[in-house]
């Protein structure tokens, strides 16, 4: 949700900012802009992608070793050149890039207009540029103090970087609720939304905390808080590699990430499981074992794809560890005055670790005394730092906006957690426990096998590339997979799709079925096989086209379905790790055939840092 990058050093800033913005484009791609400071402040911005900005700026004088850049996901004001960031103050002295939302912007705007400020954009961000200018000019404050003072007036979330034309060797950054990281190179400094634009130059970073302000000049950096007290900071050394941020020969990041899943699922299990020794341990559970083992209830909070893996977590925790679990949309949970107490464990499930709704729900639960367990991919992200305990899913950077490998890694970690708890609580039969462990270790090679039928899935996609609607059905563990399959199709090919519990079809969606309605049925469940068979018959009787995901060697469903994709046999609780793969590939190929933008689907952003 908006990406920020800024540079101060001895190199040319512009190419570094452009490359950084390209890496951040997954956060938003409505417009892009840079401000360069070399004696005077030059601002270049353009509606559209970073490539549009590059074309626009190609013949401009771009010399500067200090600059800020922004890629936008529009909230206030439509995506156009004027609303693009950087935003600037009335006299053009202050330029600012911002990620977040200033909730009291209209009150501030009115007050600033009365003071004579002239606004040009519809953005909430612009008020900050004017406010900072007000403190610089009329209160004669330093840039750092002006930013500090201005931020005391702000209600909302922000990560900002500010330049002042009269301070040509200084950049000031600050954050509240939105992420900001400072990169420390050799005679050069960076401030960015995440480490992806920085890692090419340095792996030494500082994650700013809420209400911290960093001022960077050519001699170094200083971090203060809102009361102007100098802050001690921790420098982290990241082990992120540049290759992890490249497509590595694939046409799209999404395809690369789908194909990475044998490796990423293995990575999620590394060091946590040993079937020979019948052993599972999840560090985050171990450090708070008593509280977690004796929890009255688990509440899983998440959004989007993470919410779908949370639903699978519910089935796993209930079946294996016999615990109460509720799965909540973070955005709904926090506005309901939920009943949470000290005996509850709240699991915040988030790929990015920065989703605003999940963070707010987590804060609420923390204030009410629950233990917070973060399951996160992005190392060092805000949710990981806010949690009492937690587990990284270790999927590596996920860049395609539609989440794929993070989903399977989240489900893997939730499975390990359920098993660890089940073992500790004695709620699982020893033989079954061992069987699941052995089977889990085979999952990566089984995913690999499914990836080999990619060409067959591509052919099915060809048949369905022009569809207008699709229905996805699944039962038990495969119901959340049906939701996830439908979401993938919606997100990247803009086809209306709905996921449903197969049996619920009779209570509504069956009315939609005719010869134009493809129905994807996940029909692998051993337990409900007969039932799912009837559901397929019900669809076929109404001339719906059935694409069935079946277990290898299936005979019955093959006779009924129009198209069949086989997946290897596994035990019920592990099925989602396999059955979701063909659905990811199906959505991918349909979107490619429809010539959609796979990695940057319209209106979406990878990391939703506004509520
Ligand atoms: C956005 C992304 C989704 C993601 C959701 C939750 O909508 O486009 O892919 O599932 O946010 O994100 P999180 O980072 O919290 O898992």
Task: Provide a brief overview of the structure.
Helix content is 36%, strand content 23%. Bound molecules: 6-O-phosphono-alpha-D-glucopyranose.
Biggest pleated-sheet summary: 8 strands, antiparallel
Q: Beta-strand percentage?
A: 15-25%
Radius of gyration in whole Å, from Cα?
A: 25 Å
| Structural class based on helices, strands and sheet pairing | alpha/beta
**Bound ions, cofactors and other small molecules, one mention each:** 6-O-phosphono-alpha-D-glucopyranose
Average predicted confidence as pLDDT: 93
- First-last Cα distance: 11 Å
Number of strands: 26
Shape: globular
**Stretches where pLDDT falls below 50 for ≥5 residues?**
none
Biggest sheet strand order reads: 3-2-4-1-10-9-11-14
Number of helices: 20
> What share of the residues lie within helices?
25-40%
């Amino acid at each position: 949700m908006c990406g920020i990058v800024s540079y101060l050093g001895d190199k040319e800033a512009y190419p570094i900012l452009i490359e950084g913005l390209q890496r951040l484009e997954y956060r938003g791609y409505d417009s892009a802009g840079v401000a360069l400071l070399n004696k005077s402040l030059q601002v270049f911005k353009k509606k559209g992608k970073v490539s549009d900005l590059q074309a626009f700026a190609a013949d401009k004088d771009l010399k500067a070793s200090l600059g800020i850049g922004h890629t936008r996901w529009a909230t206030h004001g439509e995506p156009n050149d004027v609303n693009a960031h950087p935003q600037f103050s009335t006299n053009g002295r202050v330029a600012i890039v911002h990620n977040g939302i200033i909730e009291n912007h209209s009150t501030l705007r009115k007050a600033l207009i009365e003071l004579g400020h002239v606004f040009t954009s519809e953005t909430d961000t612009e008020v900050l540029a004017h406010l900072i200018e007000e403190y610089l000019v009329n209160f004669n404050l330093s840039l750092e103090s002006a930013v500090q003072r201005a931020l005391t007036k702000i209600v909302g979330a922000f990560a900002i970087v500010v330049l002042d034309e009269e301070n040509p060797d200084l950049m000031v950054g600050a954050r509240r609720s939105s992420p900001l990281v400072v990169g420390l190179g050799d005679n050069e400094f960076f401030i960015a939304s995440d480490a992806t634009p920085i890692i090419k130059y340095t792996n030494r970073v500082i994650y700013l905390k809420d209400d911290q302000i960093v001022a960077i000049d050519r001699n170094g950096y200083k971090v203060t808080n809102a009361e102007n007290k100098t802050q001690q900071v921790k420098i982290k050394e990241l082990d992120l590699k540049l290759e992890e941020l490249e497509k590595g020969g694939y046409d799209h990041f999404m395809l690369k990430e789908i194909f990475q899943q044998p490796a990423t699922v293995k990575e999620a299990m590394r060091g946590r499981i040993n079937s020979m020794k019948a052993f599972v341990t999840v560090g985050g559970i171990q450090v708070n074992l008593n509280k977690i083992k004796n929890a009255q209830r688990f509440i899983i909070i998440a959004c989007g794809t993470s919410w779908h893996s949370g639903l699978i977590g519910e089935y796993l925790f209930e079946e294996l560890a016999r615990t109460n679990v509720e799965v909540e949309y973070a955005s709904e949970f926090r506005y309901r005055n939920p009943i949470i107490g000290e005996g509850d464990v709240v699991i915040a499930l988030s790929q990015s670790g920065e989703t605003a709704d999940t963070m707010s729900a987590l804060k609420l639960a923390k204030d009410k005394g629950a233990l917070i367990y973060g399951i996160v991919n992005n190392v060092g992200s805000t949710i990981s730092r806010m949690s009492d305990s937690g587990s990284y899913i270790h999927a590596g950077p996920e860049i395609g906006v539609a989440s794929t490998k993070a989903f399977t890694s989240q489900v893997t970690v939730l499975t390990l957690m359920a098993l660890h708890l089940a073992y500790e609580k004695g709620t699982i039969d020893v033989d079954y426990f061992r069987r699941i462990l052995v089977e889990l270790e085979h999952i990566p090679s089984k995913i690999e096998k499914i990836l080999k039928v990619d060409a067959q899935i591509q052919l099915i996609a060809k048949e369905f590339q022009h569809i207008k609607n699709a229905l996805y059905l699944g039962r038990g563990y495969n119901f959340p997979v049906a939701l996830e399959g439908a979401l993938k199709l919606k997100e990247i090919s803009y086809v209306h799709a709905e996921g449903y519990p197969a049996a619920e079809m009779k209570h509504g969606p069956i009315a939609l079925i005719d010869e134009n309605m493809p129905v994807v049925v996940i029909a692998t469940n051993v337990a409900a096989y007969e039932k799912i068979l009837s559901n397929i018959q019900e669809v076929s009787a109404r001339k719906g086209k059935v694409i069935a995901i079946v277990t290898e060697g299936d005979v019955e469903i093959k006779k009924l379905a129009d198209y069949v994709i086989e997946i290897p046999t596994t035990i019920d609780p592990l099925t989602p790790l396999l059955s979701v793969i063909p659905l990811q590939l199906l959505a991918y190929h349909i979107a490619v055939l429809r010539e959609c933008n796979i990695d940057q689907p319209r209106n979406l952003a990878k990391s939703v840092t506004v509520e």
